[in-house]
Amino acid sequence: MRYKGTIIRPPSEAESYLLQVTEGCTHNACAFCATYLDKPFRLRPMKEVLEDIATAGAIIPETLRVFLCDGNAMVLATEKLLAILEALRKAFPDLQRVGLYANARDILRKSESELQELSRRRLQIVYLGLESGSDRVLDRAQKGATAAEIVEAVQKAQRNGIKASVIAILGLGGREGSEEHAVETARAVSRMNPRFFSLLTLMLVPGTPLYEEERSGRFTLSDPMEMLREMRRMVELMETPGTIFRSNHASNYAPIAGRFNRDRQRILDELDCFLTGDSSLRPEIFRGL
After folding, report:
1. What homologous superfamily is domain 11-283 in, according to CATH?
2. How many CA atoms lie within 13 A of 249 on its CB side?
3. Range with lowest mean pLDDT among 31-35, 74-78, 241-245
């Protein structure tokens, strides 16, 4: 089992076998992200991928979940993805699900029948960064997709049997754009009604365009309480029956979990405890990406 460079995965994939099928990210231009700046994008040779699967199957045949790395494994041609999924099925007899990070436009490029076949072969979940429902914020963040495209991609994936876990970033609109960011993100997530929705909190990383904007005074980073008020606004406005909500990422000041719309009031009450000081925020020293 071979890995190149930094490997990241969602918190929910902590127990999964991580299989690197690509290196880097096809877009690799988001203004807030430095994850793959030192790793040019490439597809790993299928021979290597299949060898890694065979090795893992011999060592950990009891594997239940697999996560395909790196930043956008959905870019692979459907026939390659199907070959990988078939090899995983043979290597891991009890395999329950396979997940991956996906770019919205790569989902949209695949036909309904392709997505259905991927789902049948146990591709059960895709993780997508919405980041913001505001096109103005997305444009500044150099996301490379519109909110409408990301909404359509999530709807298409879920319509064809693949659950979506959607991520947004608190503070991405800056202090000045906080209200627009919160309102439009809530609107976009409501249109998607994803199976899972999680929030991260913006942390400026040296070497990224947004970090340089903040240093030059062109972007004002919200403070922790402003971030929490932004989160509260999103929670207040979202209408996503059945969506499982998490803010357990290490970047967040307030780890909260629940199910919409059932737990909305409890989530708001917990946020109010953080806002009034009755609950303590995660210390900066314990925050991370």
Report:
1. Aldolase class I (3.20.20.70)
2. 21
3. 31-35
Mean pLDDT of 265-288: 91
| Sign for the pseudo-dihedral over CA of 209, 215, 218, 220 | positive
Angstrom distances, CA of residue 98 to CA of 2, 84, 120, 188:
19, 10, 11, 26
Per domain, the residue ranges of the chain are 11-283
To 10 degrees, what angle do helices 112-120 and 78-91 make? 10
Distance, CA of 245 to CA of 264 (rounded, Å):
10
CA distance 196 to 240: 10
User: Among candidates 186, 191, 192, 274, which has minimal Cα distance to 238?
Assistant: 186
- Give me the DSSP letters along 101-119: E--HHHHHHS-HHHHHHHH
Token pair in block for residue 163:
């659950």
CB atoms within 10 A of CB 113: 10
Q: Which two tokens stand for residue 204?
A: 């400026």
